[in-house]
């Protein structure tokens, strides 16, 4: 799997969409009954990994009941959907693992058996909460180091409440809430903030058709017992358990409950379980600020990026835009996919939703850099597109786009059980005031992205909010190796989480990427992927307990389109800019690759992306990025080589352009009345 493909998958499953940042079920497969294969004897890369059976986690501050073992039954087994190479197995598990009797819920996991000599069982728990692990099983496995699929049974899980494990969805309520202009940082807007959050909770639960009595059973402490049922069904003793983002919270909770079932624990973009919700999100708000500043400051050392800010600095551009939007929305013309134009307004909520959604990786930060640079010339279309994508609405209709692989409803169903926000106060408005006051005391309102702190605001009004601390105790000196991965550029699970976790452990290795994305394994980078592969396949790790991996804050900048036709030096300059605008767009990079997509160009006209056997076909219909310079014609992008070809007409000529996978460019044709044959 390419880094680009991994990038799209990661964007889908790790971004915790945070509300007021101003972060239907899949088709059923055709099932046939099959018994699980017998497991092999060896479960760990090295004999020394076998944990002591008598080991136990540190006691929880509030004693919790132990899960009742067993109680599950196999429902069906068959191929996973969408021509996956995985097999899907559905188990009926107790709704409540801690009480005998009661109803059962169906939970589905996906397994791909080792193709060679089996070394163990490698389980991946994806982020969120609220993501479908099964939906990314093939893509993630393609991104794992070569040999993992041969030596391991690879397992993914749809957590209870998403995908093949039931659908708890409220996309319409979510889109409405995330577009709310109410700002919790302003004390005068507290009533509007509370009303928006309370209305969201009511509307979301109604849309999702969830029985409030079921809500407590989506908590992580219940969900991890589903994994224990999976382990028992597989008949294996030990799991190599990898979690990313929220998945690190899940796997730590499992490890606390079942310490004798872990061969190795992998925590990528980890959550420190010792932090309460307010402390965690206040720290994340500061990290978002830091990553935004680093992203924009990186532009000051790039000549092309700085030139696009026309004498200002990117950080000054952002602050000026935010100040202007705080005073009033900015009207602009939005190009529709049918070539028409609609009058719209960019709000401060739009700006913040765009930034929140596009700070998670160097590539996304690159898209954000370019969108902010476009705004310098009063082109707000790229920022609007990032905002629309960030809250999952159709850019033409602004209606919610359901995503069967992710659920904000499940996000809150889990989050509002895992963290305690009621403080023993029964009245929702009183809880709200206490929550807002805590934010003020923590200083989040002085930050550019203090709004991150308020992401869990709906938990103030969520039914069945727990009145006691049900979070699992942190793992401390466990009887198995732990590998922790983090990045200095991680905004949502900042590096301090890695440090605190590592300080509590002895048999621990860290991989720290400078800059880098929110999660770091499986991006095709030699560090940490090669070391992770060596451990999984050979049981060896670098001698140093901390390995620093070289990364980037943001990908290399690509200029936005020039203001006028006269600004282009010649045909190669123009054709190269068309190339840059295509590959530098959110639409091209995050579209569904098997579907055609028509998009309005920033200044008018359209571009249509069409899947082909070789990659992507392009059709330009008076597509305008530079004023007075509409582009008409066709092109193609070769997914194998990364190259592009264009056959385009502009008012001043006709050009044939080619760029190979190494970046070499050539254009021929006519431009400004002269024959063109240029290379660069």
> Over all CA atoms, what is the radius of gyration?
25 Å
Largest sheet: 10 strands, mixed
How many beta-strand segments? 20
Helix proportion? 25-40%
Overall average residue pLDDT: 89
- Classify the secondary structure makeup into a structural class: alpha/beta
**End-to-end distance:** 30 Å
Classify the beta-strand content into a percent band: 15-25%
Low-pLDDT windows of residues: 1-63
Strand order in the sheet with the most strands: 1-2-3-5-4-6-7-10-11-12
**What is the 3D shape?**
globular
| Number of helices, counting only DSSP H or I runs of 4 residues or more | 19
Sequence-ordered SSE layout with sheet pairings:
Blueprint: H1 3-14, E1 73-79, E2 87-94, E3 104-112, E4 120-125, H2 137-143, H3 148-151, E5 152-157, H4 171-178, H5 190-208, H6 220-234, E6 239-244, H7 246-257, E7 262-268, H8 277-298, H9 303-307, H10 314-327, E8 330-335, E9 341-346, H11 348-357, H12 362-376, H13 381-390, H14 408-418, H15 428-442, E10 482-487, H16 495-503, E11 508-513, H17 526-538, E12 546-549, H18 571-583, H19 586-590, E13 597-600, E14 606-611, E15 615-623, E16 631-638, E17 644-650, E18 653-659, E19 665-671, E20 674-679
Parallel strand pairs: 4-5, 4-6, 6-7, 7-10, 10-11, 11-12
Antiparallel strand pairs: 1-2, 2-3, 3-5, 8-9, 13-14, 14-15, 15-16, 16-17, 17-18, 18-19, 19-20
Helix pairs in contact: 4-5, 6-7, 10-12, 11-13, 12-13
What does this structure look like?
It is a single chain. This protein is 32% helix and 19% strand. It has a ten-stranded mixed sheet with strand order 1-2-3-5-4-6-7-10-11-12. An eight-stranded antiparallel sheet has the order 13-14-15-16-17-18-19-20, with helices on one face. It is globular. Residues 1-63 have low confidence and may be disordered. The protein has a domain at 565-679. It is an alpha/beta fold.
